[in-house]
Amino acid sequence: MKTFARMLPGLGALWLGVVGLGFLGWCVAALAETESQPPATPSLAHAPNIEVKVWGVPIANVRMQYQNLTPQDRADRIVQQVSEIPVAPEYDIQIMPAREGKYEGAWVMVNAHRVFGLLKGDEPDNVSFDEYSALVKEQLMLWLERRAAQKNPELVALAVFYSLLATLVFIAAAYLVVIGRRRLLMLLERRSKAHHLNLAGIHLMPYVQMLMVGLVRLLMFTIIALFSYFWLTYVLYQFPYTINAAQNLTHYIVNLLGNVGGSMLASVPDLLMVVIIFWLASVVSGIIKNIFQRIESGRLHSDFFDPETAKATRRVFAVLVWILALVIAYPYIPGSDTEAFKGVSVFIGLIVSLGSAGVVSQLLGGLIVVYSRAFQPGEYVKIDDYEGIVSVVGVLSTKIKTIRNEEVTIPNAVLLSATSTNYSRLSKDTGVYISTAITIGYDTPWQQVHHLLLTAASKTEGLRKTPAPEVRQTALSDFYVEYRLIMFVDDPMQKLPILSTVHQQIQDAFAEAQVQIMSPHFERQPETNVLPGQWTPPGKTAE
User: Fold this and answer.
1) What class is the 432-512 domain?
2) Would you identify the CATH topology of the domain 356-425?
3) Do 392 and 377 form a contact (C-beta atoms < 8 A)?
């Protein structure tokens, strides 16, 4: 077959004899449009690269424009022309160089017939035109072989058979996965009923079971998805028409696994650095914990810390160590430089900044309470209107068990402005101070009043003998004298019951001595002392 360069002079001479040289130019353009686009030299204007595919097989790249044909027009014509190649027992593909004016390229010939043309400039970057032409020839031969195989009934029947067999295997494997999931879930349910997991009084086993059930279901869906992927890839490989789609699926999963594996391998040094940083932080935290626990137990004495503040100081130092470790390890965390990680970090920082004002106030309040040594767990205190034993001095709040057997939680921020009274700090040897007051008229000797009050105290259980109860005259009012009975108890939580018993004994002692208690206000002295009458229990008669 003659090349385009040899045919062009003959055609030009023929048309020159009929209609002249001008008509020859029109004929050349018409010939370029009616036949396959001729080989040409590259145009100066490059268009975006268009990949020509038939049945998913990449045949050629089109980047250049030929006369009035855009790269997209050329690509569409190549697809049509390749699809119309006649079926033959064998195929002889040749690449014939050609030139037409400023256009230079090559013809792609199949069994001595021109199919389509290649232009210099269509080749990808860093690839020569000869290498590109050889690749086009190889890809075109691959497509012709696949088309011939697709039209072979025996090969198609065999592909259908293998596809059906693969489908049956896939269905059986999916069924086994579902059955295995059911049995595994039943096993988890039996194990959860047979075992108990408690943390801080919370039964965690139901939540652990829910987590395990979710993981099992996720594993099942993952396995079935992988089976589906492999089944689809295998079936597509059986048919020549879909081999390229199967190759794309294979390349996708291989590239995905390669990228994941490469990322994991690339992250190993950074992960190792993170592990080293946190390991060093744990070592430092352990040293700090050991030192301050020795101070707490009194085995180690320090001029800067005492047992009361050692526990809080240990916690503060531990938090600072781990925060410092997190700051140092942050750049080494895989993905810390990604926009998603930065966005999450900004979001967390915003949440912390919005909610940290109250938390910081509570933390500072707790630290001030600890370092001011206002009170400690086990001490009997009064904070505002609440009185009781301190049970917990926490990071955010302090808990008090009142004498009414109530637990009151006071935020540490409130403690910064509250006035607290510690009854236990200075009374370790004497007990907790309690007192009660009565008023007696001036007509009663004060010595008798003292005797009666001390007698009532001596008959009350729960009062300390040392220091002994004492009476003080705290006021000389217009109509009576105010006497205060001062006592000490070991158990401050029994304050109310003991005071109640003391009041009963005082009433009985003064009634027996015929001495009137003047606590009710009056305007004039009654003719006789106001004394309680004799009480008769129900069901008994007065003697």
Assistant:
1) alpha beta
2) SH3 type barrels. (2.30.30)
3) yes
